[in-house]
Amino acid sequence: MEKHQNILVIINPTTNDQVALKRAIELAKRTNSKLTAFLSIFDFSYEMTTILSSHEREIMRNSVIADRKAWVEEIVTEHNPDNIDIDIRVLWHNRPFEAIINQVIEHKFDLVIKSTHQHDKLKAVIFTPTDWHILRKCPCPVLLVKEHHWPENGNILAAVNIGSDEEEHQSLNKIITEEANNLAKIINANVHLVNSFPGTPVNIAIEIPEFNAQEYNENMLENHKKLMAKHAEKFNIKPENTYVREGLAEDVINDVASEIDAELVVLGTIGRTGFSAAIIGNTAEHVIDQLKCDVLALKPLGYKSPLED
């Protein structure tokens, strides 16, 4: 992660305890990265009042921005005992995810760090949370953090899709594993690899009585293990640090992360948007709600944010 030298850390407006800022400062001290603390604010009442002129509304907005910037400065000072140089930026914007991604595009940030929390599954289908928008549309890597320490000699879990022949997934596997290895050197951690594969399709087992489901699963497992071993060897990862299991990706990743007490899970997100994203969702999004550790989500090479159009 030493290649990430221009980091945008998102300030949580609802609390003084800024876990994302803590993590960003921790990384900056190890990598000499440039940090920018960012807060997007908006109050609909200031836009709707008809009593004030547009000039008066602008003065009020600027007053609110100044007040929140002063608060962010206090927060940064409180969390920054080593006095690392941190820029502070507060903007008025009614869509936080757009404000964040626009900052990334305009100022060439190469990593976004943001805190996350449990989402309401029902509302997630109708109202997509800010961090899900960022996962899908942010052109640079996104580190979503929770209250979880990064201990010395801890464990990083890289989730790969080893069984896919698609070029996009193969490219992501390389990006994910390289990122995990790079970060492991910085924070003195061990890299583990995990891959899941689907079990026997139910319709085949029902429609073809002579189909041997057990043999099918054993062959799938053996094939994925061979592919995993080849991939792990290429990146100098110990065989005992690799895991291949049957099941849904989000369940397998969560299970292995819990078993090894991972401090960070690195995975890829294709950036699906639109109706299919609302109904199907992304593996990264399902994983985030289950995990008790941080998640670093990476995009494939050549990804372009829809906000850049």
Protein described:
- The chain has 2 domains: 1-115, Rossmann fold (3-Layer(aba) Sandwich); 148-309, Rossmann fold.
- 47% of the residues lie in helices and 18% in strands.
- It contains 12 helices and 10 strands.
- It has helices spanning 19-31, 44-48, 54-79, 96-107, 121-126, 130-137, 167-187, 202-207, 213-234, 249-260, 275-280, 283-290; strands at residues 6-10, 34-41, 86-92, 111-115, 142-145, 155-159, 190-197, 242-246, 264-268, 294-298.
- The longest helix is centred in the first third of the chain and has 26 residues, at 54-79.
- It is elongated and about 75 Å long.
- The model is unreliable at 275-280 (pLDDT under 50).
Percent strand equals: 15-25%
> What share of the residues lie within helices?
40-55%
Q: How many discrete structural domains? A: 2
Quote the distance from N terminus to C terminus.
28 Å
User: What value does the average pLDDT take?
Assistant: 85
The helix tally amounts to 12
In short:
With 309 residues, the protein is of the alpha/beta class. Helices cover 47% and strands 18% of the residues. Helix 4 runs parallel beside helix 6 and helix 10 runs parallel beside helix 12.
